[in-house]
Amino acid sequence: MSKSMRISEEFHEYIASHKRDDETMEDTLRRLIGGPHPEEVAGILSSDTAATMRSRLDTKHEVDADEKRELRERFE
Predict the structure, then answer these.
(1) Cβ-based neighbours of 27, under 8 Å, separated by 6 or more
(2) pTM for the whole thing?
(3) Where is the composition biased (Basic and acidic residues) (predicted)?
(4) How far is Cα 11 from Cα 13, in angstroms, rounded to an integer?
């Protein structure tokens, strides 16, 4: 399955200028942003472990958002 997304001509040119001969545009973008290819990490975590990690990350994001809100309120 694949998805499409719109990017500016400038950003497309930037990615293309960093593309290696043996890479697809997707490979180049993954390399530039430092993300692993899904096939490289598939199956590493059990579903339970992944769910636990997701829950903890969600909680952390909520705490971070609360802390940022409180800090903004102090400076208003």
Answers:
(1) 20, 37
(2) 0.45
(3) 55-76
(4) 5
